[in-house]
From TrEMBL:
GO terms for cellular component: membrane. One of its GO terms (biological process) is lipid A biosynthetic process. The keyword Membrane applies. Keywords: Membrane, Transmembrane, Transmembrane helix. It comes from the Bacteria. Gene3D superfamilies: 1.20.1280.290. The chain crosses the membrane at residues 17-37, 49-70, 76-96. It comes from Oricola cellulosilytica. Residues 23-94 form the Lipid A biosynthesis N-terminal domain. The keyword Glycoprotein does not apply. InterPro entries: Lipid_A_biosynth_N (IPR011499), UCP028440_lipidA_biosyn (IPR014546). This is Lipid A biosynthesis N-terminal domain-containing protein. One of its GO terms (molecular function) is lipid-A-disaccharide synthase activity.
Length: 107
């Protein structure tokens, strides 16, 4: 049993290791960082907060994961990441609009 698990782990994590797998892991780390940033911001504020960095990590991680999904030719993964990118982009656009409005009102 242990040998079979060891063989499987080696096949999955060592034999398949290439630049695309490394990109996939980097993408997953970026995507995970959005939750870390959101958690830290919320803990500091003592309330639920979604900082701008959350949306930028979402865009970066989502874009890299989409590239990885396209390479893997996984239609479920492609559709999920592509839809998410529209949401992340729209939130960044809305935040930029709020900042422009605030700047105009401050002047």
């Amino acid at each position: 049993m242990i040998t079979a698990l060891s063989d499987w782990l080696y096949a999955v994590f060592v034999e398949q290791l290439n630049a695309w797998v490394v990109l996939g892991f980097v993408a997953q780390i970026c995507f995970t960082m959005r939750f870390v940033v959101q958690w830290i911001a919320s803990e500091r504020a003592k309330r639920s907060v979604v900082p701008v960095a959350f949306w930028f990590f979402s865009m970066l991680g989502g874009t890299l994961l989409l590239a990885y999904a396209i390479h893997r030719q996984d239609p479920v993964f492609i559709a999920g990441q592509a839809m998410g990118l529209f949401i992340y982009m729209r939130n960044i656009w809305l935040i930029a609009g709020e900042r422009r409005t605030a700047q105009v009102e401050a002047d």
